[in-house]
Amino acid sequence: MAVPIKIRGSKSREFLKVNDDGNLTKVDKMTDAVATIEYEHHEIHGGSSYVHEDHFTLNSGGTAFRRYLIETPDSQAWAHMVVSVMGSQDTNIVFTEVTDLGYSTGTEVFSRNRNRNSSKTSSVVLSHTPGGGTLDYIDLFSAQWGIATHTGGSGGAGGNIRRPEIILKPNFQYSLLVTALSANDNFITVAFDWYEHTDKS
User: Fold this and answer.
1) Strand pairing class (186-198; 77-87)
2) CA-CA distance, 170 to 199, in Å (whole number)?
3) CA distance 70 to 1
4) What is the set of domains in the chain, with CATH numbers?
5) Is the pLDDT of residue 33 over 70?
6) Residue range 160-198, pLDDT digits in tens
7) Which of 17, 76, 108, 146 is most buried per CB count within 10 Å?
């Protein structure tokens, strides 16, 4: 059972509480709320949170799709990733787990550490337009918005999606395929936001 401990001589409106593990936890005296931050925010402070954002144009008269390849290291520091896509026109996206590791690294893109005071770099390799291919994969999520008009036409409205966090397997490949579905220029923004965390045994 958690036991509150008053700090003698403290002029603060806060006091400490011993949790079930015997550790001290700071608690607000007025509301009894635990003074803490979300774990994702903690990872930013620890220098283990990274982001890559890309902007490009797709159209059916030219490059109608772009594929990203995510390659995770053979490590216990698993990548916890959130993927976001925004498209100004009709767009389809598919995120898959590549079970046969059939792709080769494409044009590598670089992530940025969200703690600009940290010198740590990500162990995840992120690239677009990879080589190779696969028929052995698992769909993890997909989405589509607008009206598919591959043969031309004015197209539909834009849209966006931000998927909940997913924990990626180590030493694995993941593919994000973004496809334009109309003849209009489709202005795309893709963001990969992740932190790398080792679970306690």
Assistant:
1) antiparallel
2) 13
3) 44
4) 1-35 (no CATH), 47-198 (2.60.120)
5) no
6) 888 889 999 999 999 999 998 887 889 999 999 999 888
7) 146
